[in-house]
UniProtKB/TrEMBL annotation:
This is Site-specific integrase. Keywords: DNA recombination. It comes from Gemmata palustris. Pfam families: Phage_integrase (PF00589). InterPro entries: DNA_brk_join_enz, Integrase-like_cat_sf, Integrase_catalytic, Tyrosine_recombinase_XerCD. Coiled coil: none annotated. SUPFAM superfamilies: DNA breaking-rejoining enzymes. PANTHER family: PHAGE INTEGRASE-RELATED, PROPHAGE INTEGRASE INTD-RELATED. Residues 249-424 form the Tyr recombinase domain.
Amino acid sequence: MAQGDETVVEYRGEKMNLVELSKRCGISVKTLYARIFTYGKTVEEAATVPVRRASLYGGRPAAGVPRPVPKLKRHPSGRAYSRWRMTGKINERYFGKHGSAEANTAYRKFATDWVAGKYDAATGSGMKNAGGVSVASLAEQWMVHVRDYYTKDGKPTSEVKTCLAAVRLVLEGVENRLATDFDPAALRACRQILIDWGTARSTVNAYINRVVRMFGWGAGQSLVPPGVHGALRLVEKLKAGRSAAPDRPKKRPATDAQIKATIPHLTPSDPERRVKIAAMVRLQRLTGMRSGEVCALEVGDLEHTTDVWIYRVGKANKNRHRGKAQTYYLGPKSIALLTPYLEGNPVGPIFGEGTEDYSHAISRASVKAGSRWSPHQLRHALATEVAEKFRSLDYAAAAIGDTNAVASAVYVHLDPQMRAKIEIARAMG
């Protein structure tokens, strides 16, 4: 016998063991034993209080019995949704703005599919296997991943905002659709929205690429079938001159004339800061640093044992996650600009300027000077100047610490064959 079966108790003046008491009152021996010896109930209480059965108020349904359709609820975000548990996992479906005709129609279709058995776990067509996760739910989960993944030194990178913009685009009109039903036609519809807004072709391609990446991540998490991602990858990119999306002019280098005209307009109410930002601008122009790199420059990042100093970029290194180092070599002019700010061996960034504040100060001043430009165009200026002076793309790439391909495609604004073409024209044409 099991433990407690032979335990003798007195019930209403009659002695009996728990097996006999169980037969008389209809309560299991295990429950009687626990009530009396674990919870300290009297024998009378243990044998007369009915057992509360959770199954009367829900619990796991009997096998083969259809489950009721999950109720329509209001999410804190204001959307209508349903939630239910199946095979040990929580599933959700979103239907649009709560109380709207669109949400009500979507919920009725969901209820019809539910009654038809589309979401029955017993048939092997549960929520995930049937592709039942909605586009909205997929987007929410992907953004959790994006915010966790795209961080640097505990702060979100600019990629988080860009991915969020792509998510908002894809939710436009299709948030209630099942992710498994999101096909190339739906992706092209999202792309058309951007085109209708007048978005530049390169930006359209970048946003659509992020949408495809979202579905690729979902496939890797078993949220959507891999075939969905594979089909979306087949959607062609917009080509230059072959789509309605405009091509923005390529960003040009900042000229020395623009720089000279802008400097007097920098922070007019703070002359001391104007001198400092002007030194940063000139340093960027001489070295080709990115804005974040010049703002993050610290004493500890500098090696000045020779006449040419070396700046090894630390936290501001854009490619640090790829294991790629970034270094800049500073000549006499750059050293002269830096030296006044190294007095007293300052702790932290020697200029004390945030990247956004620095960029905004230059943009505002350049507008006042009559020709708007951004600090990043200083990097373009150095790469182009080096390519022209040394007649070498290798030198240009080395100057800005980038690859030849990137330098050629983005930063060098010269035809590499320009000089040869000029000489041919002079001799032949």
